[in-house]
Design brief:
Elements (H helix, E strand, L loop, with lengths): L1 H21 L7 E6 L8 E5 L6 E2 L18 E7 L5 E6 L7 E6 L9 E3 L12 E8 L4 E8 L20 E7 L9 E4 L5 E9 L2 E8 L8 E7 L21 E8 L2 E8 L4 E7 L6 E2 L11 E7 L2 H9 L3
Antiparallel strand pairs: 1-2, 1-19, 2-3, 4-5, 5-6, 6-7, 8-9, 9-10, 10-11, 12-13, 13-14, 15-16, 16-17, 17-18
Length: about 325
């Protein structure tokens, strides 16, 4: 009897160790929403069972064509699932719009009519609304939509390259409970430099926000992280040093895998994806060589779905 109990214990120990080594702490599959090219063909999805090797769904073809915005683009698609199982998506509709795109789905296959959320219509001089990111805060039961906008003259200008003159981004936000009514757009994050691509994740009782330093003279183009224990009070202006390395990086997408926060990001000059991970947000490990994304993947978000949801999704393309 003692030998049997010991054998069971050893088997469980080995299985747990293997899961920890691979980062596979539960069976729920990962989904990654992304765009390709300039975003004209719309939404793409990939899946993974370990958070490292990603395969395109629908043979790499678009699942949803963009219908709104002057440019009819679907860039930077960010998806979050609510407590009722509905998936909500926001995206960049064009280069110089004052709104963002929105649609919802119960299965990631059939989507509601697309519409725009006029987040910056009360600021008529706003040049753009880029890379909206969705975050659902369980504590407040609110969805946060955070995006980058430039309002000319609003903030002190920093030196810029010729190609980026007039673009001095800050992060703005609205909150909503139902995607029908929204709070007024407000400044969300001002670190004192041009900042885009904010993505939020919560680990234990601490909120992490990964952002891109967009300064161009001298060029930064790297990722930074900042923390808060109270999302309603926002994030402090003091960000970390560069956490993404020497290559130009954008579109961070954080996800919790076991004890690690993984951050996938677009090495857009190299035309490939990279990844870093950290337990505490202070010490970061580059794991780019361990990951594999579909060719052409650009700025997306990672999230989990149930095994049943994944089977229905995958089987819909057979």
């Amino acid at each position: 009897m003692k030998k049997t109990v010991l054998l069971i214990f050893l088997i469980l120990f080995v299985v747990t160790s293997c899961k920890q080594a691979s980062g596979d702490y539960d069976a729920n599959p990962f989904i990654f929403s992304y765009f390709m090219g300039n975003g004209e063909d719309g939404l793409h999805l990939a899946y993974s069972h370990d958070g490292l090797k990603w395969e395109a769904l629908n043979n790499g073809q678009s699942l949803l064509k963009p219908q709104v915005g002057k440019d009819r683009l679907m860039r930077d698609p960010s998806i979050v699932q609510d407590d009722n199982g509905v998936f909500h998506m926001v995206w960049t509709t064009g280069w110089w719009d004052q709104h963002i795109g929105y649609a919802s789905s119960k299965d990631l296959i059939n989507w509601s009519d697309q519409r725009t959320i006029p987040v910056m219509y009360d600021e008529p001089g706003t040049r753009n609304c880029w890379a909206p990111e969705l975050y659902y805060d369980n504590k407040s039961r609110l969805f946060y939509i955070v995006w980058a906008s430039t309002i000319p003259g609003r903030f002190p200008e920093n030196p810029t390259s010729e190609s980026e003159k007039g673009l001095n981004h800050r992060q703005y936000y609205v909150t909503t409970k139902d995607f029908d009514t929204f709070s007024e757009a407000e400044l969300f994050f001002d670190p004192g430099f041009s900042v885009i691509d904010a993505a939020i994740i919560k680990k234990d009782d601490l909120y992490w926000m990964i952002v891109k330093n967009e300064n161009s003279a001298p060029p930064e183009k790297n990722l930074r992280v900042v923390f808060t224990d109270d999302l309603a009070n926002g994030f402090p202006a003091d960000v970390s040093e560069n956490i993404s390395g020497e290559q130009w990086a954008e579109g961070p997408s954080p996800i919790l895998i076991g004890e690690y926060v993984y951050v996938y990001f677009d090495k857009y000059r190299d035309k490939r994806y990279g990844a870093i991970r950290s337990i505490d947000g202070k010490v970061w490990e580059d794991v780019s060589e361990q990951i594999e994304f579909p060719s052409g993947t650009r700025h997306g978000t990672a999230f989990r779905i149930t095994e049943d949801e994944f089977e229905r999704l995958k089987n819909s393309f057979k």
